[in-house]
Amino acid sequence: AEPTGPGPRVAVVGAGLAGSLLAILLGRRGLAVTVYERRPDPRATGAERGRSINLALSARGLAALDAVGLRELALEQALPMRGRMVHPAGGGHNFQPYSAGGERAIHSISRAGLNAALLDTAEATPGVTLRFGARVTGVDTGDDGTGAGRLLLEGGATELAGVVLACDGAYSAMRRALRPDGGFEAGQDFLEHGYKELTIPPRDGDFALDPGALHIWPRGTAMMIALPNVDRSFTCTLFWPKEEFEALDAPARVRGHFRAAYPDAAALIPDLAEDFARNPVGSLVTVRSRPWVREGDGAVVALLGDAAHAIVPFFGQGANCAFEDCLEIDRCLTETGGDWSRALPMYQERRTANTDAIAEMALDNFVEMRDRVASPVYRARTAAQHALERRLPGRYVSRYELVSFSTLPYAEIPARIRRQNRILAGAAAAGGLLVAAGLLAARQRRSATRS
Ligand code: FAD
């Protein structure tokens, strides 16, 4: 274990996925950590409506869970999805494996279940205290001569804190609180698309669709996906421009639209119009904020997870990426001998290029999922990529594999893909030249025999 002893009081704001994992990692270092969560304990109250019910966990998230001994537990609660099942507008469906050998999977897991497992482990970790129903409204970094950092809580109470780790999500109050006086900059880009969740219940006690795939209905400006749940239902998420959602303002319109655009799915959702009316439309935001770390006389504050860099969900990486942040903070603490003033800037330095890269790749993947996956050209290209992966194992690896099935830093992926593509283009051109040279030689031989 790392340095123990008094040290600064560590506050983690938010007991979501990042906050609860971070608390475990810090508790294991022998630190005293208090986690402040505005909601009541979700293990007692159940999942919040309107937040994603399940999420896709992949290599990066699993590596982080492995570090706290929760990998196997998570996999037991999850369902492997080995590829995409594409439901084109014209009907039918086709399966596109994620990896060349078809064996690699991303894992559909209940957000509430994963959060509960992390909270149980955090609670059982010596040094960790969980405080539910405690909304943090701001932080005072103690620059007024007192030299004492304080956390400001709703209702006016304050609590001493020398290190504040803000994991309070995409609409972070901590990020807002830090901006006016600290020179923090935060940009939020909202997509015109929102999302709404719908449920495909089990049919005759079994899954109504293949549970071994992530289902996609690509429809150009709209896209629906469905991930399996262990209770044999599927959670569908419809991504659509917000004003389109608003236009479906009567049950008959909802049913009519789904029958026309998603006939196979519509037939599997008996309570479609009720589900549609009941579930809210969520927003999709990319957060770009800088810096993530600010040190005052009495406290050092850092943002992580969605609070620092929320991304759109089209690569299924937000939580995976937030977990990587936690591991990086832990690593930086090890490398600096537990010196927060050096560890947190080091964490920011190492992570920003990576989170910028996945933010761009996630936006790009939206176009791929809602449009390209349906095209025969795309399917041919993916098949060719898989053939190359089999012929050049480890040397040609697709972007999807590098993001989902490796822990290669995100920032290295675009350059690696460009390099692979250049080599491929060169090989194709060389192949083309060889073919051309062969044809030329054959033609010369033919004319030589004729003359
Ligand atoms: P959150 O999980 O949002 O947790 C923040 C916590 O802070 C909450 O518990 C909140 O109540 C608490 N809080 C907020 N304000 C305060 C306050 N003032 N005081 C105290 N507590 C506070 N990621 C994936 O990896 N794979 C996926 O498949 C995937 N699918 C997604 C689908 C959708 C539709 C969406 C919207 C997101 C998806 N994500 C996915 C992203 C993922 O949900 C987030 O990246 C992840 O939840 C970030 O974790 P976090 O701990 O930073 O924030």
UniProtKB/TrEMBL annotation:
Coiled-coil residue spans: none
Annotated signal peptide: none
Cited SUPFAM superfamilies: FAD/NAD(P)-binding domain (SSF51905)
Stored Pfam families: FAD_binding_3 (PF01494)
Membrane spanning residue stretches: 423-442
Enzyme class, first EC level, given as a word: oxidoreductase
Enzyme Commission (EC) number: 1.14.13.9
Swiss-Prot/TrEMBL catalytic activity: L-kynurenine + NADPH + O2 + H(+) = 3-hydroxy-L-kynurenine + NADP(+) + H2O
Entry keyword annotation includes Transmembrane helix: yes
Domain of life where this protein originates: Bacteria
Family per record: Belongs to the aromatic-ring hydroxylase family. KMO subfamily.
Protein name, as recorded: Kynurenine 3-monooxygenase
Encoding gene, per UniProt annotation: kmo
